[in-house]
Amino acid sequence: MKKRNIVALAIFALFYISFGVFLTLNQEKIVYHPFPGDFESCSNFASAEKITYQGTRMYVSTTTSPTIVLYHGNAGSACDRYFYAAEFTQAGYGYIIVEYAGFSNDIREPSHELIKKDVENVISYLQSKNIEESIVVGESIGTGFATHHAHLDPPERLLLISPFTNLSDIAKERFWFYPTSLLVDDALDNVASLKNYSGEVTIIHGTDDSIIPYKLGRQLFESITTEKNFISITGVGHNDLFTVQQTFSALQDFLRQE
Question: What is the rounded CA–CA span in Å between residue 249 and residue 63?
Answer without folding.
Answer: 23
